Amino acid sequence: MWGYGPGSGYGMMGGYGYGWGYGILHVAISVAVIVAVVFFVIWALRAITGTGHHHPMMTPPSGPRRSPGLDILEERYAKGEINRDEYLEKKKDMGA
To answer: What is the pTM for the complete model shown?
Structure first.
């Protein structure tokens, strides 16, 4: 009597069609979208701030960079061009 069309018991589709199944699917898709957005935001924040876990091959070497002069000094000491005292004095002058 109060339905949406002739002969309908209730609702627009007469009780058939889009019912609980569509509602559950809609909720599941909505939850999946929300979870994806949250993970994207977390990933983006970690990428911007540089925190989080990184693959060892993708991270730059940590620690202070060595001076090329120190490499040359060590090479000269290894070749015997300078003695130990000169090596230590020059290394101290470089601040290493």
So the answer is: 0.36
